[in-house]
Automatic annotation (TrEMBL):
This is DJ-1/PfpI family protein. InterPro entries: Class_I_gatase-like, DJ-1/PfpI, INH-QAR. Residues 3-173 form the DJ-1/PfpI domain.
């Protein structure tokens, strides 16, 4: 059976936080199925999700029917702010820590990890505007403000928004090798050269 990568969706999720990694990971898993991974989206109740900038997407699964995950990706966005005080969601995140071998976040998804107690004493990053809040939520975290992503073994955090693409390519490299990640990067024609 294929190993499962799940991208969490929730109201007011930042579109590129979820869809940037989705593009990388779905291109990989569909183009190279023999690598043994599948990627899927899920949300608490399944169904449609209204994202931060107005895009509506449909999650493939709910918490109740998502397959057992090998990798969990928690995006960020304004929808993470209520989660920082949502005892039920934070308990769910802690349950995932106990069950899922590799947790990842993009942007302010790492704030949720911090609020759940997962970043104590660990290196991490987040969106540049939320670096101070990350340090407030978990004073022992070793915040890395200049890193696009931070790989700390069983937990990977990415900086803001587009950094999720870099982090997802790093995951492909970890899970299937550097050459495969290069093939995926070429396949999606990701070669950032900002025009300004």
């Amino acid at each position: 059976m294929a190993k499962q990568i799940g991208i969490l969706l929730f109201p007011d999720v930042e579109e590129l936080d979820a869809l940037g990694p989705w593009e990388v990971l779905s291109f990989w898993t569909r183009t190279f199925p023999a690598d043994g991974y599948e990627v899927r989206t899920f949300s608490r109740d399944g169904g449609e999700i209204a994202c931060a900038k107005g895009l509506t997407v449909r999650s493939g699964h709910s918490f109740a029917d998502v397959p057992e995950l090998d990798v969990l990706l928690h995006p960020g966005g304004q929808g993470t702010r209520p989660m920082l005080r949502d005892a039920e969601h934070l308990a769910w995140v802690r349950e995932q820590r106990a069950a899922v071998p590799l947790l990842t976040s993009v942007c302010t998804g790492s704030l949720v990890f911090a609020a759940a107690g997962l970043l104590a004493g660990r290196p991490a990053t987040t969106h540049w505007r939320s670096l101070e809040l990350l340090a407030e939520l978990e004073p022992t975290a070793r915040v890395r403000p200049d890193d696009r992503f931070v790989d700390d073994g069983d937990l990977v955090t990415a900086a803001g928004i587009s950094a999720g693409i870099d982090m997802a390519l790093h995951l492909v490299s970890r899970l299937a090798g550097v050459e495969r990640a290069r093939e995926v990067r070429r396949g999606i024609q990701y070669d950032p050269r900002p025009p300004i």
